[in-house]
Amino acid sequence: MDLKTLCEAFGPSGAEHEVRALIKEAAIKLCDDVSIDRSGNVVARKKGTDARKPSVTFAAHMDEIGFIVTGHTEDGMLRFRPIGGVDPRVVVSKWVALGKDRTKGVIGAMAIHLQTPADRERVLDYDNLFIDIGAKDSKEAEKLCPLGTYAVFDTPYTEFGDGFVAARALDDRVGCLNLLEVLKSDYAGDLCCVFVTQEEVGLRGSQGAAFHIQPDIAIILEGTAGNDLGETPSRFQVVRPGEGVAISFMDHASIADRELFVKMQDVAREQGIPHQIKRAITGGNDAGSFQQTGKGARTCVLSVPCRYIHSGNNVAKLSDIQAQGELARAFLNSL
Amino acid sequence: MHTEDFLREITAIRGLSGDEGLVADFVKAQFEPLCDEVRVDSMFNVIARKKGPGPRVMFAAHMDEIGLMVVNIEEDGSLRMGQVGGVDPRILPGQRVTVFGKKKLMGVIGAKAPHLLSDEERKKNYLREDLYVDLGMDAEKVKSLVSIGDQIQLEHRYTALQNGRVSVKTADDRACVAILYDALKRLQHIHHEADLYFVATAQEEVGSRGALTSAYSVEPDYAVALDVCHADTPGAPSTRTHKQDSLVASMGPYIHPVLRQKLVDTAKDNNITLQTAVVPRYTSTDADDIGISRAGVPTALLELPLKYMHTTVEQLDLNTLKEGGRLLAQFAAAVSSSWEDELWT
Amino acid sequence: MLRDTLQILLAAYGPSGHESAVADAVRELLEGHVDSMKTDALGNLIVEKFGTDENAKTIMISAHMDHIGLVVTDIEKEGFLRVNAVGGISPLFVRGRKVVFKDGLPGVCALEPNTKNKSTPDLSDLFVDIGAESREEAEKLVSIGDMAVYAPDFTALGKHKVASPAMDDRCACALLCELLMYAEGQKHNIVGVFSTQEEVGLRGAKVAAYTVEPDIGLALDVTAWGDTPETKLPAVKLGQGPAVKIMDRSMIASPAVREKLFEAADLAGVAVQREVLAFGGTDGGAIQLSRGGVPTGTLSIPCRYVHSANEVIDMRDMEGALKVLLQFVDLA
Asked: Strand B56-62 and strand A217-225: pairing?
């Protein structure tokens, strides 16, 4: 499985079918016990031989931010709302793909010539943004893209610059990619890799997964927002792409288990894996579910720094993606 | 070449106002087999002539595009952008670009992250000054490859939508250059008396500068400028927009009434639908400057409705475009030296 | 020397439309160095120096003689003068400044006290005090329509920098004079145009370009700066060499001329900067659009605090520019 295929698969929260099928197919080649649970998560288990070793679960989410059709106007435009947190300021003048057939659409806006000074300042919200598929009237629009049709930014996966990649859904297909790497490990204890649904709409898939897996340790592989350019003061940069996998001390959903947090850094240092500490309390992820469900688990989050994570073009450095996978595996070997 | 392919190819070529050389090369190559002579002048205007014994007529559509330029390189290697023509900053965040430095470089336009913004700032659109281009490389390397003044091109995608509608950047006004091309093809089989000049003009977006100088050198008796106008768009005042499925012939003091009527008559004779727009003063198109070239040139304006002007997803109706080619060819064939007597009646 | 020429030209009175004193100074400097000199209807001084090449092209190089100023619009009964702007002059720059009229009559500028709380006072809040005690007394000295400019005040700053009013664009006039003096046996015909009325809309250059019908156009002017606190754009610094203009509001430099300027700089061994200006304009804009179009560029001298009474330039940039120009007229 490569990152390009994963990123270009369609999977806004609640419509992860394509990603699920891809991952299931790849996981089956790596372990015998692959199943889909009640929340639509892909659960891949490797039974351990040594009961003294802690049971470890690695998790990454399959879903991505996107859009959903909420109505049709008389002149054939689609009304829509975001799935997950998509800043309305990044959608104007962009391309989208809708539904299974990937029907092409564009999001335009009133031309600059027609804007009043107030228009220029005012952010167009989702009541005033439309997807245009070229339909002539509401009937045609409805036929092609019925209510509830999901959409994503139509962004190809492209490597650029010095080892960087721009793509849709790097958050969190990078985690999915590395989870498949972890699945190749020979760990003596019980190992589970779970690819969860609906992270972007409230950490929903992971709650079900956490409930039925209840591991001793849960490690979350994520993408996190980095803002190192544009003269951003250092204290606001959070993480810097290119400086390695980011280890979190806490975010809005969980506080890292202190021992794991320290151990991650020790392992990274010993193995020469580039790493950094995430320097802010921002965002929240599936670690919250695992830590606080059932008997509870010790958790730690490893993130790939991603620029413009709220837009159709996430940017990350390939070496950081690799470092995330390396640290996850090295950590497992150290237990 | 099919007119649609012409449109697809010409919209992909970079050509900020003042640097239209590559577009000019393309237009010249495509026009040459259809004309008697083609030249590119010092402003990059492409002036193509299809000879005839009658009055000299100039058809003008501009080929320059609005866009961005590197104005500064920050210490961290991010690029600050200046604009050539009016770029709507709302279209920029999250957009992919190509920077034409010592080599072609892909970049992504980044913005100050939402968590760094105050509540007040979050309610406002980003300004171009707050945005930057991320080239995915370190500052030192950026500085070795990129210079102040280098062009930044927004992402080009030719997106075919339903019902023959197409979204593509720089349809303003290359779609009208495609109309010139379409008309030229048709004129291979239609007799015309007029001495025809098809001009792809430069620097319209910064003030119709190419039209000013090319009209001076062509010295036409009549002219028709072709440009885009606004098609109906959500939120836009309906008084300033038009239906996408037919062309628009403007009227007002800057437009010669008799010449416009000739255009309208030609349309009627050939079953081509025309909408009317009333422009009380300047039209903000090449027509304004051509009309006052030398001793003055009776000039009409033909417009193609376009949605989302000055974005990367400008949308037009291909059928309307082809009707434009048909109308222009028929108009060219109709031009007669007898019109001179009617001009001021 | 460049510095002496500059000082001579800076001393001359010359608001837009009233440039004859500057033209006289230029004529005196160039006497015996050029092939012809003539003045046109708008007061442009057009100077020719023929080239040696049999296929010599005609290069029009313009530098404007006029500078911004104030024009008297009314005289108060207490003898104070009310003024309006000639070109882009800001009351913030003018307040507290000494100005002079054509015959040397001095005055000082002040703002009404009630403007203290205005973030940007209007020029109508300003008045000029010439010491007159009544309208009658004032009227003996000045008339409505008389123009005043910043009083000449040449100051050396540090080793290389100099400050003065009217640096925009007398520094370019000085360059053009020196070019015409020192160019010898150059390939192309140089038509130096000491232009008028640039500050009110590139008016002199427009008619001069029509008359000259050049093959190539070049404007010499100052440009803004980006090297003082909280100023970043344009990315141009004093002392780093003259700047080759990419674009401003009046012109997108013709790529061919722009590249020739870079080539000339290379040959001259002079470092140059690249300038993108979001505002402003030069004679280049008028020359480029003359008749059927003229390939045109602009070479700029970086200048701080443009349109203030202390326009600061770096003499190293001037010397570099002269070297570039001497190459350019042989190359273009």
From this structure: unpaired
Of B148, B203, B217, the CB nearest to C274: B148
Q: Which residue has the tokens 């850094």?
A: A265
> What does DSSP say about strands A298-306 and A217-225: parallel, antiparallel, or unpaired?
parallel
Contact B232 A140 (CB under 8 A): no
Q: What does chain C come to in residues?
A: 332
Angstrom distance (rounded) from CA A252 to CA A284? 5
Ordered DSSP codes for A274-305? -EEE--S-----THHHHHHSTT--EEEEEEEE
> What is the pTM assigned to this prediction?
0.87
Interface pTM, i.e. ipTM: 0.87
How does pLDDT run across B184-232, given as a tens digit for each residue? 999 999 999 999 999 999 999 999 999 999 999 999 999 999 999 999 9
CA distances from C15 to A201, B101, C123, C149, C285 (A): 67, 42, 17, 7, 21
User: Which residue from B129, B7, B90 is spatially nearest to B312, judged by alpha carbons?
Assistant: B90
pLDDT of chain C, 332 residues: tens digit per residue:
899 999 999 999 999 999 999 999 999 999 999 999 999 999 999 999 999 999 999 999 999 999 999 999 999 999 999 999 999 999 989 999 999 999 999 999 999 987 767 777 888 899 999 999 999 999 999 999 999 999 999 999 999 999 999 999 999 999 999 999 999 999 999 999 999 999 999 999 999 999 999 999 999 999 999 999 999 899 999 999 999 999 999 999 999 999 999 999 999 999 999 999 999 999 999 999 999 999 999 999 999 999 999 999 999 999 999 999 999 999 97
* A113 φ/ψ angles, rounded to the nearest 5 degrees: -65, -30
**What is the nearest CA distance from C115 to chain B, expressed in angstroms?**
31
Residues of A (36-75) whose Cβ lies below 8 Å from B: 73, 75
Please answer whether residues C232 and B72 qualify as being in contact, where contact means their C-beta atoms are separated by less than 8 angstroms: yes
Contact call for A158 and B106, based on CB within 8 A: yes
B107-152: pLDDT as tens digits: 999 998 776 778 888 889 999 999 999 999 999 999 999 999 999 9
CATH number of B3-65+169-341: 3.40.630.10
Query: How many residues belong to chain B?
Result: 345
User: In angstroms, what separates the C-alpha of A93 from chain B's closest C-alpha?
Assistant: 5
Q: Quick one: fold of A3-64+168-334?
A: Aminopeptidase (3.40.630)
Which strands sit side by side in the sheet containing C243-247, from one edge to the other? C36-39, C45-49, C189-195, C58-64, C216-223, C296-302, C243-247, C273-276
**Coil, strand, or helix at residue C205?**
helix
Q: How far apart are CA B265 and CA B335, in angstroms?
A: 12
Q: Which fold has domain C2-67+166-331?
A: Aminopeptidase (3.40.630)
- Helix (H) or strand (E) holding C58, with range, is strand C58-64
Which regions of chain A carry the CATH code 3.40.630.10?
A: 3-64+168-334
Kindly state whether A117 is in contact with chain B, defined as any CB-CB distance less than 8 angstroms.
Answer: no
Long-range residue pairs from C306-309, CB within 8 A, at least 24 positions apart, any chain: C306/C168, C306/C222, C306/C223, C306/C224, C306/C225, C307/C68, C307/C87, C307/C88, C307/C89, C307/C90, C307/C93, C307/C168, C308/C93, C308/C165, C309/C93, C309/C94, C309/C97, C309/C150, C309/C153, C309/C165
Q: Match 């866009």 to its residue by tokens.
A: B67
Q: In chain B, where does DSSP find H-type helix?
A: 3-10, 21-31, 119-122, 139-145, 171-186, 209-218, 257-269, 286-290, 318-334
- Integer Cα distance of C199 and C147 in angstroms: 14
Fold of A66-153: Elongation Factor Tu (Ef-tu); domain 3 (2.40.30)
Cβ distance of B108 and A307 shorter than 8 Å: yes
Domain ranges of chain B: 3-65+169-341, 67-154
Q: Which residues, listed in sequence order, are joined to residue B48 by a DSSP beta bridge? A: B38, B198
